[in-house]
Amino acid sequence: MRGLAFCLPLRTVRTLWHTRMQARQQQHPLYATDRKIADRLLAASTPAQADLVDLARLLNRYEGFRGAPDIHQDLAHCLRSWSLTRAELNAATRVAWEQGYRPTTQEDAEVGSGADVNAA
């Protein structure tokens, strides 16, 4: 390919390079789930504790990961739009965990002996 670069038009060389770079990118196994979380974070104008924890978690997960450039960009956008640095985000989430924050899911609310009983 190196020898061909001098014979091919610049547009073709760029296309070949872009194709090779895409082939080198990895596909994260949690991409679909993380994409939904990133979309939720983008929609939050004022982050809740859960949003801060999710942003920190995803930043850690995708740090150094070759792939998912859209998620990388969206997470960086969340930091900028919430006027936070990475250090401030980590400090805020550390405080949240120390104060007893624990993530909840809708599934947690629907599990248990009273989950199928309607309130009287």
List keywords for this structure.
120 residues; mainly alpha; 6 helices
Structure description:
By secondary structure, the protein is mainly alpha-helical. The chain has a domain at 28-101. 60% of the residues lie in helices and 0% in strands. It contains 6 helices and no strands. Helix 2 packs parallel to helix 4 and helix 3 (49-62) crosses helix 5. It is elongated, with a radius of gyration of 21 Å. The N and C termini lie far apart (73 Å). The model has no long low-confidence stretch (mean pLDDT 82).
Map the helices and strands.
Elements: H1 10-24, H2 31-43, H3 49-62, H4 69-81, H5 86-98, H6 106-109
